[in-house]
Design a protein that fits this description.
Shape: globular
Distance between the termini: 15 Å
Largest sheet: none
Order of helices and strands: HHHHHHHHHHHHHHHHHH
Structural class: mainly alpha
Radius of gyration: 22 Å
Length: 465
């Protein structure tokens, strides 16, 4: 059916004066948002795992390589965001250059990214928080811990802490974007302080011999390690969902996306380089290598601060990811692909029903589902969005639907960057486990049922044609 590929008139939407969302964000807010969502528990976990299993002391190269892959996608997102500053991220971009059915599949994939990323972050938050409670001699009953916390033991039923933290994040998001941004900024500053504290403390214990041999697994280990490090950078795409709430988006969106990615690349590189210099890489194959390294160095006081920083870090991740999910549901509803109730906003200009839907779904998923399996959907949903946006830049520049729009930012080395980014994402998708593809197939079928049962018939693009 040709109508399945009907395209969204983004020029009309950009000229629409009846804008509901309020433009209050500036470049600094976007950078803080980007750093907040990318730098989560991963910075405290992945450097040690990569060093011990793939790259040895050369772990810094894995992060630099992963950053290069991500920067290609970031450039493509920046061109789209500066050309089409509307909510919805890759979903809206796909709607303008590919058509409705492709946009729905990409958007529905992003729903899995945001929903399950929020759920898994809440589970990790719960684990770290329970460790802090244990330090005070407080232990929760196992019945209140999810199966993910008991290595699959069915005695785990409901993670009350994960459930509550998601609900609290939902309440905060409902209060308004200004309040959410302010609190998120405070936690991001604390998180960066904690990371730099580790770098300074560990730097005093660096021994040159720990860097020898620098590449014990050979150059092949760098590539394998980069596939793990790549996922530590995921999240900068969430920044593009804020396009419709940004002042001067043509200027500020590219700054927010690219600057946040560069800052994170520097932080990851510093942490990984100092970590393997202070402690032999063979001793870092643990779930908490940063805290473990400080314990080996007899710096237990700093280890406790790092644990607090990890909790702070995951709180900012949770807030920003949930924010992205709410704006995506809002975009679906505004386009008629979901019931109109989800585009309604409250007195704070927040899409309340969308926020409640995402919050409740993420809270239930975090509390009850086997997150160790379901979170694999995060990776495939993100990679699909990256791939569609990367190759989409080529369509963007030749589309009649967007010829009236002038991008404030253009991808350098076009079309090399878009093509390299696209094929890199496709390659990483082929490396995912069969289970991930099976779950993604089921998720896609559910999405298509919703689309053909409701979205196809209520699409505003269809009604306007």
């Amino acid at each position: 059916m040709p109508s399945l590929f009907r395209k969204k008139d983004v020029v009309h939407d950009l000229q629409n004066k009846n804008v509901i969302l309020t433009r209050i964000l500036v470049a600094k807010d976007l950078v803080i948002m980007g750093v907040g969502v990318i730098v989560g528990s991963g910075i405290f976990i992945t450097p040690g795992i990569i060093a011990a299993n793939y790259a040895g002391p050369g772990v810094i190269f894995t992060y630099l390589f992963a950053a290069l892959v991500c920067i290609g996608a970031a450039f493509c997102y920046s061109e789209f965001a500066s050309t089409i500053p509307l909510a919805g991220s890759a979903y809206t971009y796909s709607y303008s250059v590919y058509g409705e059915i492709v946009a729905w599949i990409v958007g529905w994939s992003l729903v899995s990214e945001y929903l399950f990323a929020a759920a898994s972050t809440a589970v990790s938050w719960s684990a770290y928080f329970r460790n802090l409670l244990a330090g005070f001699g407080i232990t929760l009953p196992k019945a209140l811990q999810s199966a993910a916390h008991t290595n699959g033991n069915p005695q785990g039923r409901f993670d009350i802490i994960a459930f509550v933290i998601v609900l609290l994040a939902t309440v905060l998001l409902l209060q308004g974007l200004t309040e959410s941004v302010r609190i998120n900024a405070i936690m991001v500053y604390v998180k960066i302080f904690v990371i730099l504290l580790f770098v300074v403390v560990a730097a005093f214990f660096v021994k040159p011999e720990n860097y020898n041999p620098f590449l014990p697994f050979g150059w092949g280990g760098i590539g394998k390690g980069a596939s793990v490090a790549f996922y530590a950078f995921l999240g900068f795409d969430v920044v593009s969902t804020a396009s419709e709430e940004v002042k001067n988006p043509k200027r500020n969106m590219p700054i927010g996306i690219i600057a946040s990615l560069l800052i994170v690349a520097i932080l990851y590189s510093l942490v990984s380089f100092v970590l393997v210099g202070a402690v032999n890489y063979k001793d870092l194959n643990v779930a908490d290598p940063v805290a473990h390294a400080l314990n080996i160095l007899n710096q237990n006081w700093a280890s406790g601060i790092i644990s607090l920083g990890a909790v702070m870090g995951m709180t900012t991740v949770l807030l920003v990811i949930m924010y992205g999910g709410t704006r995506l549901i809002y975009s679906f509803s505004r386009d008629g692909l979901l019931p109109k109730n989800f585009k309604a906003v409250n007195k704070n200009s927040i899409p309340a029903n969308s926020t409640l839907l995402v919050g409740l779904a993420a809270a239930i998923a975090a509390a009850a589902l086997p997150i160790d399996k379901i979170t694999e959907l995060v990776n495939i949903g993100t990679l699909l969005a990256f791939a569609s946006t990367s190759i989409g830049v080529i369509f963007l520049r030749h589309s009649k639907n967007t010829k009236e729009l002038t991008p404030a930012f253009k991808v350098p080395l076009y079309p090399i960057f878009p093509l390299v980014s696209f094929f890199a994402c496709i390659y990483l998708m082929t490396q995912l486990q069969p289970f991930t593809w099976q779950m993604y197939g089921i998720w896609t079928v559910i999405g298509l049922i919703i689309y053909f049962g409701y979205g196809y018939w209520h699409s505003l693009v269809k009604k306007n044609n």
